[in-house]
Amino acid sequence: MITIEGIALTDVCEVIFMKIKLMILSLSPLALLTIIRNFLFVTTNEAGIALRMSDFILENIILLLVLISCLIWTFLAIVFYISFCAFKWADKKSGYEVKLVEDKEDASLNFFLTLIIPLLVDDVGSIQGALTFVAIVILICLLLYRTSLFYANPILTLLGYRVYTFKFLNNSEFRNQECIGLSQGIIEESSSIEYKKITDKVLYVRRMKNDN
Fold it and tell me: Global pTM?
């Protein structure tokens, strides 16, 4: 088996792909809101006569391409969330106590207000508007990939996930590193958890059932 610094290549690829999937999921509200905000087609000509199907497509081609892309994006987000649900249950490490736990309850709200709402483009039906939209999405994806900001995922928050920062009390893999945890349950000071790595510092965490 091919390894990178002692880690199986398949595990490295799984982590990279899961990060990308969660990035797409985190930005899916932008796709959905773009569809809602720009769902306005030209259906008549200058004389007020309804356009034929071929003329309708030609008149709205850019808007149709953008909206179809956003629909595919939204569909992929659903598929990737299902993939994340499967990912988080396999090969977890357990029995580790945490300390300095902080609930980052405003993380997803800040993400939504700073990275989603300001980036809505009013006119994706024009070439300029469509190019602006594509450029914004590419730049934000690069930002999310280079950082760990994708953890502040508004969709996961709506589905009951919480974001925590914490350190392990005794875990040689992380030593004294601050970690970011995504959890559907409550994590408290000195909780014993099980976890699975999404990136080097972002983990899916779950409080162990026998922890009091």
Answer: 0.81
